[in-house]
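Aim 2 progress. For Small ribosomal subunit protein uS14, the working sequence is reproduced below.
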Amino acid sequence: MAKTSSVEKNEKRRKLVDRYAAKRAALKAIIMDQDKPIEERFRAQLKLAALPRNSAKNRIRNRCEVTGRPRAYYRKLKMSRVALRELGNNGLVPGLVKSSW
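Predicted structure tokens for this construct:
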């Protein structure tokens, strides 16, 4: 099980990303628009830099929803390999069979 503080910190980041997503997208559109004057684009860049760092989408860490483990994460299942194996052995994941040869 991961530290509770790490999981909570990641949840806080998710909320910040949701809150600032529209504002970040608008500022990025201004920055990338080559037709706008350079001064306006630079002001937009400064405003984007003033936003909280944790409001950037790439700061979110994929974590297992069962254990909070940050590594060996399956995106499709939203859980780690360890949790998947444990649930599979208990027969809680439909279609998952423990292999043996």
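The mean pLDDT is 93. This observation will guide construct design in the next reporting period.
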